[in-house]
Design brief:
The protein is mainly beta and 160 residues long. Helices cover 0% and strands 56% of the residues.
């Protein structure tokens, strides 16, 4: 089972809902080719210690949105074990370019408010991972009261 990660660095959040990092399991994949997300990291580089917390979500999306771009550091994903094959399943998008249409928010899997000068990371126990079925999208989405720089990272296994 191959393991991968992707990240988007220093993305300006704006004050509207914004997809920072999105992974997709193409609809053409057979049902057995599921993606299991087992970890995430979200951090902020704010300058105001009195700023409101940022609504930080790991969520399914019901549309892919328009635009976005492959993050420049993770094309299409970084292998956590160099001996594993290149990813043949997961497509990764981030806001390295402006989304022309923000993806539609679906089920919120993880939701929390994080101070804009802090961050959080979590690894999900084996067997409890968040599954992305063929034709599905999962993303890190933020909503901030004031623009703050966001770094987001997702970890997943393919063929789960």
């Amino acid at each position: 089972m191959a393991k991968y990660t992707a990240h988007a660095d220093d993305v300006a959040s704006g004050t509207a809902q914004k997809t920072v990092l999105q992974i997709a399991n193409p609809v053409a994949n057979p049902g057995s080719h599921r993606i299991a997300v087992y970890g995430y990291r979200i951090s902020y580089r704010g300058t105001n210690s009195a700023a409101q917390p940022v609504r930080s979500l790991v969520a399914r999306q019901t549309t892919a949105g328009g635009g976005g771009a492959v993050p420049p550091i993770s094309v299409p994903a970084v292998k956590l074990d160099p001996a594993t094959p290149d990813s043949t399943i997961t497509a990764v998008k981030g806001p390295a370019a402006v989304w022309t249409t923000e993806p539609t928010l679906g089920d919120i899997v993880i939701g929390q408010r994080i101070h804009p000068q802090a961050g959080v990371s979590e690894f999900i126990p084996f067997g409890d991972e968040v599954i992305v079925a063929p034709g599905g999208w999962l993303a890190v989405v933020v909503v901030a009261a004031a623009t703050v720089d966001v770094t987001a990272q997702l970890y997943w296994r393919e063929g789960h």
